[in-house]
Amino acid sequence: MCRGEGELKLSIPQDLLDILICPACQGRVELKADGSALKCVECRRVYPVKNGIPAMVVEEATIEDEEPRQQTG
Length: 73
Ligand SMILES: [Zn+2]
Prior knowledge:
This protein is mainly beta.
């Protein structure tokens, strides 16, 4: 008889964020709004957070393409 409630919300403490750097460019990383990933502010690589542990590995990272919306015409 176990209670299945009480979902633990995992988040990265600010202290940890302060020491984490992007392994690709040594830039600062910021936690995404939903806490699911860390994003480098320099090269825009996004590192996934697995079980509350950020995977600071270049091979795990995805690059978020943020192309500015432009209207041609
Ligand atoms: Zn970077």
